[in-house]
Amino acid sequence: MNTSGKFQAGDRLQHLKTGGFYRVIGLAKIEATLEDVYVYEAVSNNTLWVRPKAEMEDGRFVRVK
Description:
By secondary structure, the chain is mainly beta. 6% of the residues lie in helices and 45% in strands. The protein contains 1 helix and 5 strands; from the N terminus they run E-E-E-E-H-E. A 5-stranded antiparallel β-sheet has the order 4-3-2-1-5. The radius of gyration is 11 Å and the shape is globular.
């Protein structure tokens, strides 16, 4: 697994458009394409999400404390 990315497991992020808070679980790969994706969890309801690495790192998410 590719472990190099802008965000690391455990980082808390905020989505700038929605204001939602999320916790990074880690990086993974889409089996069919081998595309790098982040797995992350909504702090509000523990829903797990997956988003392409390029989208996560394009400025729509920022690390918060």
